[in-house]
């Protein structure tokens, strides 16, 4: 008898931590006699708030990788033949492709919602890539520098937030974000090595791209 | 001792509990100064009360709203999605008739509970029976399971649809529909992470709602007509999806060949 009550109590507490059961939280009651739900069986034991946080995180990361992919695609369309920076951009692009593939796999696994504005990020990234590449190699590298600064910083912020959540379900996500942050910062170093600072109007250009990326993050967090 | 019971009065949007014991204690206080002996007795009893730990109440102090909602569902076919149903549900649990004041939105809250409950029941019922099915079979299975849960209340479902269509209630059914469709695709093993994520959910939402609407008017035995309707809609969406895929391939081909012609003329490098 005691055990049965105890089990009911534990079930109730676990259920109330589930996204599927925001309802029970809303009504301040335990839905006893309810069978286990799917999330519980899958051992995803995050609070609704944490789930929301991770949902928006993954959405932003994926959108960022889409943007980065299309920036490199645009740059390659113009600078693909260049013997000096062509292979470097290609190499960075390959890494971004891998990042995007990883986030495409993570989205269904964590049941995150992809960004609704994906076509806009694709178009904006491509235009940015083509535009900066047309301004010259240095401007293209300055663009990479600005974008990777924002993305690297943002990954760092996310990692800081994730470290507060102690849960085995997201240990994999932490590892991935850590690795990707290092990759992005490596791209930043590469861009600076290839004369990013010598670009025409380096200051205003990077400032515009910087703030544009931040605005995109702000929008993607919501949509 | 007095049995601790509470009732609720609904004033505007604020629900104020009345604790009967306090009311009765007040009555006792007015009677207190009748004689010295009674006075002493009551003092003793007060002392006893303060020294003994408060006993745990036999019943939960507040009526649990979810329990009332669950108990109300069997009355839906008789009274509709109304306050009366909620009152009947409260009555079966031994709570006063006016407990329906806990639900300021009335029937809409009962529908809210019903939709959430059905979705959870559906996921629990189907998640371990999906092995070896194809995606469209999984979706069909999920839809049928969910429709079967609405079946007992289908006579009153058009009434529920009318309540859900009221302007202040509109966000509630949309949220439930989004969650339901998301669960269905998740259980079907959908792995899309681009715009397909949205289009798949939108298409399934339209299919599900239209089938449910058909079901309210269905007179065929055992709702065969509804399930045939569902099959036809699913087939339509499959052909629609294939058409979109073909258009995409064609557009891709056209763009690539255009750039190919341009580059052969020596314009740009793509």
From TrEMBL, chain A:
CDD domains linked: DMQH
Topological category with respect to the lipid bilayer: Peripheral membrane protein
Enzyme nomenclature, EC number: 1.14.99.60
tRNA-binding among keywords: no
Free-text comment on the cofactor: Binds 2 iron ions per subunit.
GO molecular function, one term: 3-demethoxyubiquinol 3-hydroxylase activity
Assigned keywords, A-Z: Iron, Membrane, Metal-binding, Mitochondrion, Mitochondrion inner membrane, Monooxygenase, Oxidoreductase, Ubiquinone, Ubiquinone biosynthesis
GO biological process: ubiquinone biosynthetic process
Catalytic activity: a 5-methoxy-2-methyl-3-(all-trans-polyprenyl)benzene-1,4-diol + AH2 + O2 = a 3-demethylubiquinol + A + H2O
Coiled coil region boundaries: none
Cofactors: Fe cation
Chief place where the protein resides: mitochondrion
Cellular component terms per the entry's GO annotation: extrinsic component of mitochondrial inner membrane
Pathway participation: Cofactor biosynthesis; ubiquinone biosynthesis
Localization terms from the record: Mitochondrion inner membrane
Binding locations of Fe cation 1: 65, 96, 99, 184
Known role: Catalyzes the hydroxylation of 2-polyprenyl-3-methyl-6-methoxy-1,4-benzoquinol (DMQH2) during ubiquinone biosynthesis. Has also a structural role in the COQ enzyme complex, stabilizing other COQ polypeptides.
Subunit structure: Component of a multi-subunit COQ enzyme complex, composed of at least COQ3, COQ4, COQ5, COQ6, COQ7 and COQ9.
HAMAP family reported in the protein's UniProt record: COQ7
Family of this protein: Belongs to the COQ7 family.
Designated name of the protein: 5-demethoxyubiquinone hydroxylase, mitochondrial
This protein's encoding gene: COQ7
UniProtKB/TrEMBL annotation, chain B:
Predominant location category: mitochondrion
Residues annotated as domain COQ9 C-terminal: 173-241
GO MF annotation terms: lipid binding
Statement: the UniProt record of this protein carries the keyword Transit peptide: yes
Name of one Pfam family that matches: COQ9_N
Pathway assigned to this chain's UniProt record: Cofactor biosynthesis; ubiquinone biosynthesis
InterPro entries: COQ9_C, COQ9_HTH, Ubiq_biosynth_COQ9
Domain Ubiquinone biosynthesis protein COQ9 HTH: 67-91
Entry's Gene Ontology cellular component terms: mitochondrial inner membrane
UniProt region (Disordered), positions on chain: 38-64
Family per similarity comment: Belongs to the COQ9 family.
NCBIfam families: diverge_rpsU
Function: Membrane-associated protein that warps the membrane surface to access and bind aromatic isoprenes with high specificity, including ubiquinone (CoQ) isoprene intermediates and presents them directly to Coq7, therefore facilitating the Coq7-mediated hydroxylase step. Participates in the biosynthesis of coenzyme Q, also named ubiquinone, an essential lipid-soluble electron transporter for aerobic cellular respiration.
Protein name: Ubiquinone biosynthesis protein
